[in-house]
Design goal:
Elements: E1 3-8, H1 12-15, H2 22-40, E2 44-50, H3 60-64, E3 91-94, H4 100-111, E4 118-124, H5 126-140, E5 146-154, H6 158-170, E6 174-176
Helix pairs in contact: 4-5, 5-6
């Protein structure tokens, strides 16, 4: 495999549910086009899914952010049906900002000499889960170029989106700025 697209947390609760924003809603068509592009090129697509249980409000995250979201098996937890999902695209559930399982999978691919040559991330939220996963990917595969498409990401606020993009650039994640 040569390229990998990681679609971060494009779930209903982050788009138009409990934590949704107009900015998140606006990127859905571009993320869908990006997924279709990767699939039509024969490249690999992986989705991550923020996954919480019914006890979310008793977790550290739930105490700091007391808004139940992405509770397993709810509508808000599901990846948006507006997005194309290739049949072979795995969904990596994660209970925290960065998908540890994604890093482990990438390391296993590297050990089997099947790691991607490039990894691109898109999704939500730029300033929490996208940045966490971009840095996690860099930690597991430091020699693989990692990029983020800024037009296919949205943050909690437009300002925090821009701050996260700058932080990723400082950590050698290439930030793409295609025209919207």
């Amino acid at each position: 495999m040569s390229k990998l697209l990681v679609v971060v947390d494009m779930q209903n609760d982050f788009i138009d549910g409990a934590l949704g924003t107009p900015e998140a809603q606006s990127i859905v068509p571009r993320v869908d086009a990006k997924i279709r592009e990767y699939d039509s090129n024969g490249d690999w697509v992986i989705f991550t899914a923020d996954t919480h249980e019914e006890n979310y409000l008793q977790t550290q995250e739930g105490v700091v952010l007391p808004i139940p979201h992405c509770i397993r098996d709810t509508h808000g937890w599901q990846i948006s049906s507006a997005l194309f999902r290739p049949e072979d695209a795995p969904v990596v559930e994660k209970d925290t900002f960065g998908a540890r399982e994604l890093g482990i999978l990438l390391k296993e691919l590297q050990e089997a000499n099947t790691a991607p040559d490039e990894i691109e991330l898109v999704g939500l939220c730029t300033d929490i889960c996208v940045i966490s996963n971009a840095l996690l990917v860099k930690a597991f595969l430091p020699e693989v170029p990692v990029s983020v498409d800024s037009s296919c990401c949205a943050g909690v606020t437009p300002e925090s989106h821009e701050t996260a993009l700058k932080a990723m650039e400082m950590c050698q994640v290439r930030v793409l700025h295609p025209k919207k």
